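Reopening closed ticket. The problem is back. First fold of the pair:
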Amino acid sequence: MYIIPSLLCLNGRCIESAAEEPRVLCIVQDTTSSKTVNERLTLNLPASTTVNKLYEDVAHKAGYVNGTFCLGCSNTTDSEMSLVLSGFEAGKKNFLQLTDKDGEQPQIASVTDSSGLDDSSQDRFIGPLPRDGTVGCSSDYSSPSYSYSSILNKSDTGYVGLVNQAMTCYLNSLLQTLFMTPEFRNALYKWEFEDSEEDPVNSIPYQLQRLFVLLQTSKKRAIETTDVTRSFGWDSSEAWQQHDVQELCRVMFDALEQKWKQTEQADLINQLYQGKLKDYVRCLECGYESWRIDTYLDIPLVIRPFGASQAFGSVEEALQAFIQPETLDGPNQYFCERCKKKCDARKGLRFLHFPYLLTLQLKRFDFDYTTMHRIKLNDRMTFPEELDMSPFIDVEDEKSPQTESCTDSGAENEGSCHSDQMSNDFSTDDALDEGICLDNTSSTERVLKPKSSLTFELFSVMVHSGSAAGGHYYACIKSFSDSQWYSFNDQHVSKITQDDIRKTYGGSSGSRGYYSSAFASSTNAYMLMYRLKDPSRNAKFLEVGDFPEHIKRLMQREKESEEQEKRQREIERNTCKIKLFGMHPVKMMMVENKLEVHKDKTLREATEMAYKLMDLEGVVPLDCCRLVKYDEFHEYLERSYEGEEDMPMGLLLGGVKSSYMFDLLLEIRRPDQVFQPYKPGEVMVKVHVVDLKSESIAAPVSVRAYLNQTITEFKQLIAQATGLCAETMRVILERCYNDLRLLSVPNKTLKAEGFFRSNKVFVESSDSTDHQAVFTDSVLWKLLDRHGNTIRLFVSLPEQSPGSLANRTSCPKASQQQQSSSTSDSQKSSEHSDFEHIESPAQEPDAASQPSQTENCTRAASDTENQFPSEERSDSDVNNDRSTSSVDSDILSSSHSSDTLCNADSGPLPLANGLDSHSITSSRRSKAHEGKKEKWDTTEEDSGTDSEYDENGKIKADSQYLYFKAEPYSQEDGSGEGQKCLLVHVDKRITLAAFKQNLEPFVGVPSTQFKVFRVYANNQEFESVRLNETLSSFSDDNKITIRLGRALKKGEYRVKVYQLLVNDPEPCKFLLDTVFAKGMTVRQSKEELLPQLKDQCKLDLSIDRFRLRKKTWKNPGTVFLDYHVYEEDINISSNWEVFLEVLEEPERMKSMSQLAVLTRRWCPAQMKLEAFREVVLESSSVEELKEKLSELSGIPLENLEFAKGRGTFPCDISVLEIHQDLDWNPKVSTLNVWPLYICDDGAVIFYRDSTEELIELSEEERNELMKKESSRLLKTGHRISYSPRKEKALKIYLDGGPTKDPGQD
């Protein structure tokens, strides 16, 4: 699962850290033209990029108008969704196809169109050159924003293409071939759909009929195939599955036969495409022949015989090899019924009848047994334009005196040729594989004698370009109307020549031996279609005037629908679509919408549309609303449109564009107000008034100014808006974060001072002496500096504290003493504010009303009655639903804690603080702790010393007087009880060490005895451990959880310990949190674990009867030996996890050269798995493994078979699948090679007795066992099947969609 990185907020927008954010590599193939189909556009985009932004970037790079093309990239309808959430994979190549939209070619962006481009980009044009004509010629429709070319209409070939839904090129190639077959098209037109019999959406013949009518009569360049695939019962996911075109042909023909039952077309497929052949075996001693007749729809031709180094050179050679008989001799002898013994025999195939339309499949996909991968054979194989099939026909009688006939099996096998020379595509269970979910039915037997002329004419070549892993199909088809060859490549139809056909033979120049196909062209013919040359049968296409009446009515409906779509597209082209914002007066929040308005609508009409869109009817009067030009990013009102209410929106917005560089804001006024005019060139300034007496900063007042105004004029403008005195006014510009600039030069212009569209200034006007001080030393600067760096945090406190800090902490010294002591501290810098008792301007009371620090200390020591009971969870709760005490075990452990708490055993103690409003500018440790030089560190690395103390034992935080203010607030949980929480305002430049010290009075224990966890959006908690780092990575409203427990010292790591229970239903059980240190041996860590295990987990163990081992998610790994040293022999990190395994006998693992595997016996006769047992091997030898298993189980060595478990421990698998699905008895001699790769401890090995037969179950027993296994595996969270992912079967559903078997997974 991909986890979105943390987000940074900038001007209200969330952006990801560029340094950490993964990127999505998009490779776009432009398939909209034959001239660009070989071009690739590459974009490397951040993972957070929206789908809408992807379209914009592709449009810019390809030179198209956005919105006029489609990308086969996402099924989501939300264009604002990020690429990752839309299914793109970060860090991998994502291949996309740029295709036509609504059957029309993308509109090429005009070179003169400046929409969406800045000045620097208007002088260059990026993208492909204009195709088939010049953009913007006199015959084209043009507008200020678009240029339309006549190429958008039907191709000049007169043929219409098909839109590729995503990976449906194989479907498009077959559909175009069928469309260009006169006999098939004419027969389809003669069939009439009956509305009363079936839903037209689910009728495959009707949707094919509609498609063919559109292909013949449409004016579009390409049309969609979604209606056809919907009639197949396919959903959108099927568009992303590429299948074999020959497989589709068979499945579609079977579906049509089922749909055409009881109609005139019932036998159409057989009449056109079905042939017959004889499968025979002849005894070479007596001449007796046994045979059967099979039917076929296509002939599969082998490219290269198995084991041969040379491929067949032509289709004729492959056909000859297809009927070449093989001799059955030796161990393959045939049992002759006449001789009553095994004899040598000849087995083969003979063609009895060729179909009218002959289909040849060139079997280019094979399996390489060396690499164990599918491969594609790209060898050269020629095929003639006219193919004479007479040499391959069987001229003998179908029966002879020495033969015995078998029943004709053609109907039973659904057109499959059953021969050992043929591939598994033609097995007896093809009816199941082909995907027709109905029982097979027999067809009428027909005896067809060979014709006198068997010359076939080539008319379709279906070409595959790519590898066995995937590729692209297109069709080269000859029109029987003009004998011209055309290329049908999805949307593109173009004329081609015989030379182009010859290029599909495949192969390369010269011979490279067996591996020649690896270096050959990957574009070659895959399926050929021939038509018998018979003038008496050869048909011509029906012309429009000769269409049956029902086709004419269908054509009229489609024509009207197409005209309606065209009108709608024309409206879309003239519609301005722009973002609309508005502050809703009731919801009191900024609302965003999309305003779609025709370019000829006036501003007044558009305002009324926006008024209704914002749902303001009955809330405010229409005349109190107006539309203004708005920049949402800078929150800047660019201009208003006074006197232009009757201006068309197309002119106001600069034309119809795919995107605009600005937005619109629906501004609302009160009835007693008057709209302020906004003129172009003005800048917006948000003015915050600062009151030094109350130390407050007021909410902003908006003021508009001009960049050429001077500072003096600007002060007068502010004085009018705020009522302040301009003479004593100080104006401070915040140009960017924490960059404060005093505007002190009267005649300097705003532009020279760095003002932009939207600006933020602070003003102060008083008669105090503060204005005489240097700005960076003034009270004003310190107040603004604190204001700019203060963040608000929500801190959740622990349920109880084991001791009261009031019993050990003395009151901090007075602020004057703090300041005097800080003057000698070298770490005090001018950027750090020593301004004390500054409260938040809007929420905090006056400083005079604040209690002194001495009072706060007194209250902290005495006010112990205020307790905040609530439920607390341990820091292991992120991964476990196990509630524990908030007090970690290590806080009570004397082995690591130098501050043992005296009150740890006295039960729950109150917090040491009343949690009233408390302002701390510098918290000191108690005098009892001042002299300590305890070094403690939480960094994960050895470098650096994140110690809370300096070399003299003095607290480092004493040198920094950064703002800290905490006050209690109650957060209601579901139970009605409030969680103890603090609302903390703190300067984010404070270090984590100082932050923890400031929290001491509220937590009730020293900062060394509690931990700080940062809570992220998904409620995951991560401990903040680097004490010398500041809170600069935190932002407003971040959540923090405080948990009791000793903080880590330098070189220590917090470790989660889980118990490994190999034979339990849940083998991974959380035990406790502990601490391991660098340099500690495994045995030392076990010694320290013993008392913790006894106290917290009630496990009373001997040190030699348990082991620690590596934990990778739920998988057990390397066994750690007692002498191993952490960080030297064992890599350890923060929040590390480790398994503890209880041993039934003394440890057998003594050396790293040994290998510990977990074995489990499978008993097929009982249909059960025995318990896990560990086997320790001295080497990685398979022979040793078998010997150990034989000793363990008593199975003879020669009968023992084993297999490696799959998936996550415990590698659960259904007992119904284990016997067949695992790779039993791999042919390897060592365990550390493919396919086992067992190189570490913890691997799961299943073993069995090969002589033990699998028990036979009745159907009822099998169903009952299946339910039990499904329930068991679902409870353990494991998949029911671990079989390798299989290619999705190609199915066409005759009932409109798949029905899921409840018993299936």
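Second fold of the pair, where the issue appears:
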Amino acid sequence: MSAAARRNSSKTGNDVGSDPDRIRTIRRELSNEYTHNERDSIMESSFKDYKMSRGSVKGTSGASDDNIPTVLAMQLALVEGPDGLPADEGTQEVLCRKLCVLEADLSGVKTLISELSAHFVSINSGERTIFITFKTIEEIWKFSTYHRMGFLGQCMENLLMDQEFWLISLDQHSGIEISIKEETLNLMYKGFLMQEGSFFGCCTANQMFDSSTSGSDLYLEKGDIALFEPPFLGSGWTVLSLADGSRGTKPKPALEPVIPFHEWFLKSCPETVLVGGGKDTCDLPLQIAVGVCETTEEYDAEGPDELSFQAGERIIILGLLVACFEWFMGKSEKTGDIGLVKTNLVKATGSFCESSDIFLKDEDRQIITLDQDKIKGKTISLLKKICQSDVGTNYKLDLAKEISGPVQNKTQEVNNLKQKVNHILSEVDETQRKDDSSVSIKHQIEIETNDTEESQETPRFSVCSEQDSTSPDGHHALLSFLSSRDHQPVFMLLYSAYPEFLISHFEGHSDEEDIVAYLGVARELARKKHVWWAQSRICFLLGQLCAGRSKFSQARVYYEEALNVPRDCFKDMFLLSAIYSNLALIYLTQKNHDKFFILSERLSALLMAVPDCLFGCEDPEVLKYVLKKAILAKNQPAEARACFILAKLHLKLKDNMSAIPFIERLLILADDVPEAYDETVSHVFLVLARLYSDQSLPRLAESCARRASLQVGATASHCLCGVSLLMENASELYGVDIPTQVAPYLTRAAALVSPGQEPAMGYVHALCLSWLFHKHSMPDRAVRYMLTVLDHSSMSSVGQSDTTAALIWTAWLYICNQQPSTALEVLDAVLSSLPEHCTTQLEGVVYNMRAISYRHSADIRQAAESYRAAIEICEEFEDRHNWAIALANCGFMCLQIKAKKLAGEYLTQSVELFSELEDEGHELSLISVLLELGTHLISQGKHENGKIYYEWALLTAMHIDHMDSQLHATRHLCQLYEEVCPDETQCIIYYKHQLDLLRRIGDKSLEGEILEKISQLYLNLATEKSNRAALDYTKQSLGIFIDLGRKRKEAHAWLQSGKIYHILQQTELVDLYVQVAQDIALSTGDTLFALEMLEAAGDVFFNSSQDREKAICFYRDRALPIAVKTSSVRSQLRLCNKLSELLLQLGQCSEAIEFTQTALDISVSLADHLNERVAFHRLATLYHCVGQFEMAEHHFLKALSLCPSPLQYDEEALYYVRVYQTLGDIIFYDVKDPFDAAGYYHLALAAAMDLGNKRSQLELCTRLATIYHNFLMDRELSLFFYQRARAFANDLHIRRINLAPDYSFRTTAQYKNTITGATR
């Protein structure tokens, strides 16, 4: 596939034609993705490029390109329970949401899919499907192998699930199951094979092929495997028989491709190994057998490695008899001789039975030695170091802000716990005394053992002194050393690599020629003296030397002599194996096919009979014949043993990469017969996990280690080896030292051993799991796990320091679980067990924790005394770190009792001590104290000082790169600039930093909420640039809420986007976003939430200066009917008020009166006087607007009657002024009743005088002067009010006062102007 096509296909990876059209519109709007048609065209072109890069299969198999799939769907499902049953729909929806989040950041899933030897295409979160593709046959082979071994689901669990999942799943047994369409994968595999030019296939029927190498036709039976070449330019299929190399052709053969592993292995075999060896001619009914068989005819041995026998003689099978091999190793019941027996010369007896075990008796079943005990010890030590690293040395910082009421404990339970703790402490003292007395005895035993090992010496031979000797008996020492007929352990170096034996046993030579000459003389001497076994071993050594110098023909002569010179049958099977393997390699190198096949058959028999006989083999090519023969015969037990031997040899040669395929195949074969491999499979899985880890495949390594721990034959050591592997990659994969994935391993390990046998195992299990539960805020479960280890009598044997640390840790868990009184019981017991006349730092730790317990129990006096004791111990040991923590705890306690000045002093002293520390490890405590001190100072009004401490805490957190602390400090700064010292610019800066931290952590939920806040802050700036920035952040939050499936947040984000578009006057998008927000709200099924969103949608237009009439349909037609139906009275009131106000401004007064009257009725029923007064005032205004002046007067007076008396605020007096003045104007100008108008003006003037508003008094005095002068004809009052008006006019610098009445003035004109402006 081209690079452009790959980029295009990755862009389309979020939605592969399965999401609804609306969601596609969402995605494109959010991230500028392609439309559906663009997506389909790009996917189609990319897949076409991909097919072209692989080559077309048209014209070869008659199949069309369209019949070969290009992508494979991995279907994910959550399963629960021990039987792995599918979870309910709600739980499956959680998985959908996880996949949605994964779509936002594809880096993790792409890395995982690449590790699984595939290529990522896309995700369909709705269908819980991930689409992948392949580029080579090897990728399909690897992927199908991982699928068969059950790695896919476990890898996905580690990628998708949060850390809490592994703790919860301890009880629920939940996980992810992945299913794929095997048919699709097979079609993709066949498509690749057709383009390879040739591939190995299995005949599905008996068939004849036209021979191209001999006169007779080639006949292949059903099940035969051969090499096929597809037709080219109209020719037929060509076939190569692997049995004898015959070729033939056929137009349409009946065949089925072999499995990918067989395809890979057979293609890796050299032609010398691949072609030849003949067919299996044995008639035995079993593939692999043990027991006793009976010979069918007489046979005379042709060499010392073969066994002679008579017809009807009983032969004991040594090791395994494999039907597909020509020979097996047997022992005559009659003579006791051992040798090779032809498989086709024996028949079954009553003692002849099938075997499912591929391993030999007394054989080392470990592919490679893993020092499991050492790994186990290191893992336990590491877990203890991390989980209780500071329990017994560092004071705990009490960060509890509010002390809730302690949980009441049952007296009986507390007494039982106290008895257990005292019993454990007494046993620890007793055990400690016994251990001290046994140290000297163990030391003496170790000295004696070392002396015994040093006394064993290896024989050495001097080449020069022996060679210069004139006596033929000079080589007697060497001949005597090598003359044993039986195998000796010291011979192992001789059979492995020749330099090791020569270096360790020979001295005095200048080069290899001296050794060759020396061994040549020894060989001749052995021949003359008829020391056959010494001669054979010397010949083997000479062959090794010649082969090492590439003198293969000479080496072949020596090896053949070594094989044929003995007169008796071989008893040293390791010598025979070494000769076979080295001689076979010579034949293979010299392309001597016939002899190679003959010798390989004998070597195969030996490998099936003699445990651990690979010391002389240095080239895996020799052993490939064994596996090839097993594959062609479809003998799976033999294939499994061959894979076991090949993997072992590759690992012996340090070729770890080449061993992996054989180990994987061995495990797949073992899965078919699990009972035969119980004791081995777990070890093999661990070896494979180690190899994966070395190849930088951490997720596969983790899945493999998990499988190892789940095997029936797994041990506690296996589980802890898995924990070790997991923790090696934990920091890279999960960013923690101990991930929660260790919980299943430790639980399994603890279940496999009894606490009495391995107390350290039970202890570390409880300690680590309690630590994990505590870290993830589950203190109750943490307490329960620690109590399990206290219940066992073997607790005292874990050591005094560990026991004390465990008890202190248990006390801390009780405090965190709001059980301080129980914690005090444990701490008092620990304190009483400490030495009375010797103060220790541990004592200070206990005093500090006791003080915390007393504080949580609201016993401040006892807490203060314990803190004082803890501080004195710190002073004595000059322990400034713990001293600072103790002072900080005192400060927190003072804050609790409102002693703020003293709290500030303690916290300041603590910060000073922290700042003097030069070592690391105190930063987290310092950050917590700085934030608490900053909060305290801000509450005292010292904002600048508090800000400095906040910033100091943030800088410290950034210095140590601790994410959680950075988030904590940043939240304090955001709160400071948002609530205490409002500064939107600074607030935006810190919210953006908080956003970056959340993205690094991967907390999508909080990320969406922070994006919302940043958007609102930009919107508050009210500039076009800030509005566009707000829109961008809102859309980012919208994308996250869609992925998380948070419908409410999603609806709010859609509406917020529509609101911002409205502000930006992009009216064509406003309706779309508001409508989608409405649809999302309705889809939740929550009527009240839908009502809330409909009202908010109307508010977008109601609070704007344009398109305000659009709010009516949301309020009146959509929201109000729902409010009435749901009896949401408050919502009805609010909506009626908004509708009446909006309709008034739009000039629709008659309809507005209806809604205002409804609002009035609701207010009266709720006894809501404020809203009642508002409704009366609005009704008065509406009646005034439509010219019903008497009704307006009535409702204005009703509104005034609801005002509080006496007046409390200036606003209330101002309201009186305006309403009475409005009433006066209505009566004077509209009703034409100057007498009543004067009364209202007088009331308004009284209120204005009480308020002291000169301008209002000027207007009212002018009106009264006019009325008294022109209408009521009271010259005295007219003059009085005129003089008052002049005085106010002089004060306000107004020159002229007009007393003439304006007969054309109408009070309703003000509403016409308002309506005209609103409409415009």
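Update: turned out to be a display glitch only; the data is intact. Residues 411-455 form the longest helix (45 residues). The radius of gyration is 46 Å. Please close again.
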